Amino acid sequence: MSTLITNIAELMTQDLEHRILKDAAVVVEGERIAWIGAASSAPAADDAVDAGGRALLPGWVDSHTHLVFAGDRTAEFEARMAGESYSAGGIAVTVDATRRTSDFELTRLAMGRVAEAVSQGTTYVETKTGYGLDVEHEARSARIASTVADDVTYLGAHLVPAGWDADAYTELVCGPMLDAVRPYVRWADVFCEEGAFSEAQSRQVLQACGDAGLRLRVHGNQLGEGPGVRLAVEFGAASVDHVNYLSDHDVAALAGSWSGWNPGTGAGPRGTVATCLPACDLSTRQPLAPGRRLLDAGVQVALASNCNPGTSYTSSMAFCVATAVLQMGLTVHEAVRAATYGGALALHRDTGNDVDGGRAVGSLAVGHRADLHMLNAPSATHLAYRPGMPLTYAVWRAGVRAR
């Protein structure tokens, strides 16, 4: 079954050629994109959709979320808005609520959050464990996450639970807990920050998880300059996320990690993506991550929602894009690219046209997964020009109309 989507006012491919096509059309066949080009040259298809002069983008790729949780942290949010500073300790509140919630209810809640994200144009979503923090509940979170998200990350190293010695808990994370979650996850992460895991403990986690065959990412440099970026680059992590406080050395290290990669062809060794989380920055009243500075230095940047109950309870990637344009100095094209192709880079899902589920996401090109986001506007500029407006008109996820 093929579908022709035509009368597209602006088609922003976000592929390696950075194409923006006017008066364009796309043919979707099954789960893949079969053709892209001028509407006047479009081939016949089994079905047709008239875009009505609307814009079409790749679906958002949200590369950093925490969707498997229960409970509420509005009291913490209100205290923060009243002037209290953010610390990692609030995670424990969610851990307690999550442990007390049934498998059925946790799954239902996570599925609802994914559905909210899809309704706003997100077509590929990563999520993490990290609200279990013992072997049983981390394994349960990983299993549930694997049924609702596209990519799952092990974050047993989210916080040291009350009553635990930090080094003893790190041993648990690197041993029995890792073994328990391994069947369900593709990635591992560590919160390398004061109040969470030290440089030595973070190194131990990254080494153990890498040795177990997991790909790596790091929560780093959120609350101050620290070793997070340096460790991420040293271990070849796919991304380092938050990056609010960066020294010149940190920026240079991230840029250097991309020195052998060709942005025009995608060839060469990948570096470490800097993932900015602007909704979290606003909620925690941290300085916004220096996205403009990173891009100008040659770093590949992603935008993600960081949807979680404590510091960023939103899955609106459009909100993140608008913030990146209005307050972080990115152009509309750069912000959309960071929220699509950048997220795919951070998840190593930017390439592949095979038929076993490995199709590229985050960009529109022949052979890529047909993840499409149609705006009720003639151009992507409206995402920042009309911030906060519900501009998602239609969504296709792997070729299936989801909205």
Break the fold down into its secondary structure elements and pairings.
Blueprint: E1 2-12, E2 20-29, E3 32-38, E4 47-58, E5 60-62, H1 74-81, H2 91-99, H3 103-119, E6 122-128, H4 135-148, E7 151-157, H5 166-174, H6 176-181, E8 187-192, H7 199-211, E9 215-220, H8 228-234, E10 239-242, H9 248-257, E11 273-276, H10 278-284, H11 291-297, E12 301-303, H12 317-327, H13 332-339, H14 341-346, E13 372-375, H15 382-385, E14 392-397, E15 400-401
Q: Structural class of the helices, strands and pairings?
A: alpha/beta
If you average the pLDDT, what whole number results? 96
Question: H/E element string?
Answer: EEEEEHHHEHEHHEHEHEHEHHEHHHEHEE
**Approximate strand percentage:** 15-25%
Strand order of the largest sheet: 5-6-7-8-9-10-11-12
For the secondary structure, the number of strands is 15
Describe the structure concisely for a colleague:
It contains 15 helices and 15 strands. The protein is of the alpha/beta class and 403 residues long. It is globular and about 65 Å long.
Keywords, please?
23% strand; globular; 15 helices; 15 strands; 403 residues
Please provide a written account of the structure:
By secondary structure, the chain is α/β, with parallel strands linked by helices. Helices cover 34% and strands 23% of the residues. The chain contains 15 helices and 15 strands. It has an 8-stranded parallel beta sheet. Strand 8 (187-192), helix 7 (199-211) and strand 9 (215-220) form a beta-alpha-beta unit.
